[in-house]
Amino acid sequence: MGITKTEIFTTKQNKLANILKALAHPARIATISQHLNELKNIGIIKGCVEGTSISYCIDEKVWKQVKNEFDSFLVSFQAKENCS
């Protein structure tokens, strides 16, 4: 299998790909702690330790950035007239 060459893509494309990877990977969806760790690593959520528990919350600033990334990605779609 070849090496992924992220340098051939824009920073924006790589950032969106990392966000989608963290949100969509089936192993992370099935394994909650791993999923929360990935979300924390990309900054979507914050966690604080309370005794033996960790409480998580969405980082609103990062969430807005993620929303803007999705919005600009989805808005950039242009339908082709003769798509078959």
Describe this structure as you would to a colleague.
Helices cover 54% and strands 14% of the residues. It is of the alpha+beta class and 84 residues long. The protein has one domain: Winged helix-like DNA-binding domain superfamily/Winged helix DNA-binding domain (Arc Repressor Mutant, subunit A, Orthogonal Bundle). A hairpin with a 2-residue loop joins β1 and β2 (53-58). It is elongated, with a radius of gyration of 16 Å. The mean pLDDT is 84.
What can be said about this structure in brief?
The protein has 84 residues and is α+β, with helices and mostly antiparallel strands.
Most strands sheet: 2 strands, antiparallel
What number of structural domains do the residues give? 1
Widest sheet, order of strands: 1-2
CATH architecture: Orthogonal Bundle
Structural class: alpha+beta
End-to-end C-alpha gap? 31 Å
User: Could you state the order of secondary-structure elements as H and E?
Assistant: HHHEEH
- Determine the CATH topology: Arc Repressor Mutant, subunit A
Rounded Rg: 16 Å
Shape field: elongated
Instruction: Estimate the helix proportion, in percent.
Output: 40-55%
Feature tags:
54% helix, alpha+beta, Arc Repressor Mutant, subunit A
Write the layout of secondary structure elements.
Layout: H1 11-24, H2 26-30, H3 32-41, E1 45-50, E2 53-58, H4 60-75
Antiparallel strand pairs: 1-2
